[in-house]
Structure formats: structure tokens, C-alpha cells
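Supplementary Methods, section 5.1.

A reviewer requested that the exact input to the structure prediction be made available. We therefore reproduce it here, unchanged from the version used in the analyses.
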Amino acid sequence: MSRRAASEIITREQARALRFDANLSILFGDRPILERAALAGSAGFDAVEMWWPFSRSVPSDAEVDRLVASVANAGLSLVLLNLDGGSTEAGEHGLLSIPGQAPRFRDNVDVAVDIAGRLGGRVFNALYGNVNTDVPEALQRSTAEENLAYAARRAATVGARIVLEPLNPVDFPRYGLRTIEQAIELSDRVRSEADVAVDVLFDVYNVQRTQGDLLRRIAEHADRFGHVQIADVPARLHPGTGEIAFGPVFEGLTRAGYRGYVGLEYRPSLSPDDTFGWLPRAWRSSRRQQTAPK
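The structure derived from this sequence is encoded cell-by-cell as follows.
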């Protein structure tokens, strides 16, 4: 399965304290989007997350209905949904801070809130966007703050929260939010000025590539984590294939009192057994963890 045995990556106690979900956009990316929830369910998960699954910020009602049905019919919960990040083919990574895109961003928020309201989603990931050297940094920052406040207020109507995700400069060289501390600083300002809830997304892969010192950052900032995602470094494969010692990471999250979901946001291996083998099947569903084997 992986280079390390499952027992070296996660313990029964850690699995009982944490909850896991499968990212439908990367783990099952070779299959049509409407088939992926059923595949996650077959793999033993009862919760999923996804990047924005449509080619447009505002898809048709029929497209939304089909996606919602695919998740609901599989009996799964939608934990996290990325807001539209623009065209990845064009190198775009978020609309939050882009002047002139506020109407598109806000229309997209309204669609996402509808999806979450129907599937019980509780977290929206608002990607910051690329730095544009032709636009004053202060304007990009104020645009982000205004859009964040709007998104947070709309998310609250369905009991959801917004998170900010820093991305690493190796994979995303133009992205405008690099570190956990920068994300917390921006979320604090919006919280204070607009009186809304904004948290951060702690992506283990991105933080390791940008900053390292994962355990210290977990200990210092876990109370601000609205969501956690994992992948090993450097190949962005499953835990046990790279340089990260996930046992201490999971222990750190557990000790810090993190009780949200941990999203499996890594590239799949050739075999499903390799892709998910580090996490015993009985530990993949939050409903099954009470009877998880030793």
C-alpha cells in the first residue's frame, strides 16, 4: 500500500477523534462528476468535499439538481465546497480579491449557498486569487474584504462558514495569500470590521511546502481552523509516501481539540487499495468510528 504501515500513520484513538472526507475533485477525477459520490460511498466514506464542480460561476438549475442528487442519493454529506476559482487552464486561482469580478463572485456565492442548504454543507473555501501587479495591492485587499463579508453573511443563512486557504508559491507562484498567519490576519480584520465569521483552511501539503513547522502551527492556530486537508510532500500523494510524519500531525490536531473534518485532497494512486490503504475502511466513516477495530 504505502511506504509506511497504516499503524505508523494513524492510531485508532486519532481516527476516533477526527473525521475524514474524500475530495471528489481529485481522488476520482478520471470519472464523471456525477459518478464520484457513489464511488466515495463504495470506498467507505460518508462525507465528501469538492472544488467548484461546474464550468460556470452560475450553472443551470438542472446542472445543480443533478449534482445535488448524485450526493444525496449516495447517502453522503457535503462537508466543504470551494467557491468558483475561475479558469485553472488560464492560471486563475480565485476571484475573492479581483476588482471587477465582485458581481460574478457574489452570484456564485448565492448558488453555493443553495447547494449547501440542500446538502448540509457547512464550509465554503473562498480562494484569494492571483496578485495583479497592475492593480494596487490595497485595492485587491479591500476587494477581498468586501467580498468576504458578503460571502460570510450569505453562508451564515445556512449555518455555514467561510475559510481562507493559503497556497504554496511552488505550485501557485502568483497566488496572493501565502501563509497561515496572513490568512488569520485577513480573517481577523474582516471579523472585526464586518462582525462575520471567517476562519482558515489548514492544508498540510501547502503549509509544509511554504512554511514547514506543522506541529507548532497546529498548536498555535488550531482554534482558527475551519477545515483541514491533507496530502504528502512532495508528490501530493497519500500519507506515508513522502516527508510528512502524519502520526504527529494527527496527534497534534487531536490534542489541540480540532473536531472538524480532515479532507483527503491528494492525487490517487493506481490502485484504490494504495490510495486509501493507510486509513482502514472502518475508520473512513464518522458513523462507523465508534466500532472501529483496534
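The domain at 6-266 is CATH 3.20.20.150 (TIM Barrel). These observations are discussed further in the main text.
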